[in-house]
Amino acid sequence: MDIFITDVKLDHSPIVPPLVLSYLEHSHSLSVSHLHWIPDHNEICVKSTHVLENVSQFSHQLVTCGIDGYVMMWDTRPQQSGKKPTSPHKTTTPPSLTDLDLTWKPFYKIPLPRSELPKTFSATRVSLRERQRGRRGRQGRGEVGDVENQQVEKGSANIHPIVSQTDAGTGPEIEGASTKYFVGTEDGEIVWGDWTPSKDQESGKFIPTRPDYFSYGHCGSVVCMERSPFFRDILLTAGGWTWAIWREGEKNGPLLSSCSCAVQYTCGTWSPSRPGVFFLCQQNGGLEVWDLMDRSHEPTLSQNISSLPITSINPFRITSKQEMLAVGDSAGTLHILDVPWALKNPSTNEDGIMEAFFERETQRVGFSSGRTAARAAAKRESMTAASAELTKEESAPEGELEPVWQEEARREYEDYLATENKLLIELGLVEPLPQDND
């Protein structure tokens, strides 16, 4: 079955039918807002949800999120076909991706309930810590000059659908593999959690774990959640009229956040070649380039690309000397931009400088949070002491408080008379009293 139609004689856009549709009753009840492929060097165990090494080096799993408040994990490997051979000399029909049509179900569902309300987080973006690597298998930060490894974040995984689920989960478990996920919501919250199931105290069954924490990051729907290609624990988010940079595990808030701009953001992405540069697109068709090595309070470059809202952006480094930026707007127009030299060539030790910058911001956020908590505790103590003093005065007998009140009133009245007499003398209305020379 040909997925793409290349007949040049067609005078209209061809309609490509879907190859596989999921089972509606087990899918998202509302719109799917984001899809994220699991990297092809690991896989999630269908039974235990542990992260295993993918020995086949083909990507078979993906993660979706929707505004219905669920994050779902899917596997594109169909079950072994149940068709029996009609002849003893024939074997069973090999599995095919079309076997999943209208029967495809997620193997794991992660609900996103709110802790204070009987509602759920409406997810618009999802991000996992592990990302797609280059063919050489990069473990940590990429080398700035390695062009192949710089495309790991936007690189596509090897997808091989004609594999049965009987071959799933055959690799060893990866020790220390992250099972954390970040979710951006329709209301601007940033949610962080762990997909590892926990044991229910009442039923004894393993159930999905509730999100660990959330923070009000933006004043509008989160439209961008991108991990830095140089630092796996650094995320860029944008929503409404603001953007923010977060660090995984830092629960005191974002490391860096912007003030509100005049136009809403629609999408964004990191630069694949410079650790301190990222791009943000706006509702009015504008493009902002932020260079944290230069300044952090305003964009380094602002340029209008289209008269319509920009809906998608994707940078691509062709060679070590050429980098392009693809931008698409709401009318379906694709704009290809050439990234200038200053925005694609990193400064000396830029990755180390940015790493130190993020570390300083982490310490600053922790210190600020600690000082805020200390001031709040001191304020509570002072209010408690004042309340105790007031209670003590109210509970004291009336005869004990009367002399104290009379003494304070007498002093205040004497001060008033002295001030009044001094003012009258200065105005010449009364003569000063003669001084006694004896």
Task: Write structural notes for this entry.
- The chain has two domains: 187 residues, no CATH class; 172 residues, no CATH class.
- The N and C termini lie far apart (124 Å).
- It is of the alpha+beta class and 438 residues long.
- The protein contains three helices and 23 strands.
- Strand 13 and strand 14 form a beta hairpin.
The number of helical segments is: 3
Order of helices and strands: EEEEEEEEEEEEEEEEEEEEEEEHHH
The number of distinct structural domains comes to 2
Distance between the termini: 124 Å
What's a concise summary of this model?
With 438 residues, this protein is of the alpha+beta class. Helices cover 18% and strands 27% of the residues.
Detail the topology: elements first, then pairings:
Elements: E1 32-37, E2 42-44, E3 51-53, E4 61-66, E5 70-75, E6 108-111, E7 123-128, E8 180-185, E9 189-194, E10 198-199, E11 206-207, E12 213-216, E13 222-227, E14 234-239, E15 242-247, E16 256-257, E17 265-270, E18 277-282, E19 286-291, E20 301-304, E21 310-319, E22 322-329, E23 334-338, H1 341-344, H2 350-395, H3 398-426
Antiparallel strand pairs: 1-4, 2-3, 4-5, 5-6, 7-8, 8-9, 9-12, 10-11, 13-14, 14-15, 15-16, 17-18, 18-19, 19-20, 21-22, 22-23
